[in-house]
Amino acid sequence: MPRLYGLVARFETPEALYEAAQKTCAEGYTKTDAHSPFPVHGLAEALGMKRSKLSAIVLAAGAAGALGGLGLQYWVSSVAYPLNVGGRPYFSWPIFIPVIFECMVLLAGLSAMFFMLGLNGLPQPYHPVFNTPDFERASNDGFFLSIEAEDPKYDGAQTRAFLEGAGALEVHEVSG
User: Fold this and answer.
1) End-to-end distance of the chain based on CA atoms, in angstroms?
2) Rounded to whole angstroms, how far apart are CA atoms 26 and 46?
3) Is the dihedral of CA 23, 160, 131, 119 positive or negative?
4) Most exposed of 14, 68, 82, 143 (fewest Cβ within 10 Å)?
């Protein structure tokens, strides 16, 4: 027998979804998610989601790439294969700037892509919320709010009544 995932409610507009998300967070629900065909400003904050760690990871990776590029060029030009070109010093840093920049961009971009996928749990070819009737509208014109059954405040009948009172057009019980 499939396990109960929770309730998924459909809303008419992004404003209605935003207001329902605020009410849901204020009511004390914590295991929630919103699904929309486009970003809704402030929706993540309305659901009480924390700020992503991705920006700090990308900054660290960019700094590591820049230092790695500088270190590699210093080692090659000053230690491994020193050449006196036109009387310049071995460590002539201005010429290293393009490579430093490119290494920084390379590591920052790659870390942004891979860590974004990892932190979001992607690729995820299946999720229980996909079983919601008309959920394919979430990529076109549908606005959905889900509350998981694992939420400490979840009670099937009370949560359904809460979502209907928050302005949901439809509320569906979803199994996963």
Assistant:
1) 10
2) 9
3) positive
4) 82
The residue among 169, 160, 172 whose CA lies nearest residue 129 is: 172
DSSP 133: T
Q: Which residues contact 134 (CB under 8 A, 6 or more apart)?
A: 10, 142, 170
- Give the pLDDT score at 1: 67
Interval 19-47: pLDDT, tens: 999 999 999 999 999 999 999 999 999 99
Quickly list DSSP for 30-52: -SEEEE-SS--TTHHHHTTPPPP
DSSP state of 75: I
- Report helix angle 54-74 to 97-119, nearest 10: 150
Domains and CATH numbers, the chain: 4-51+128-175 (3.30.70), 54-119 (no CATH)
pLDDT in tens, 163-172: 999 999 999 9
Using 50 as the pLDDT threshold, list the residues of the chain that sit under it: none
Write out the H or E segment, with its range, that includes residue 70.
helix 54-74
Token readout for 11 is 């809303």
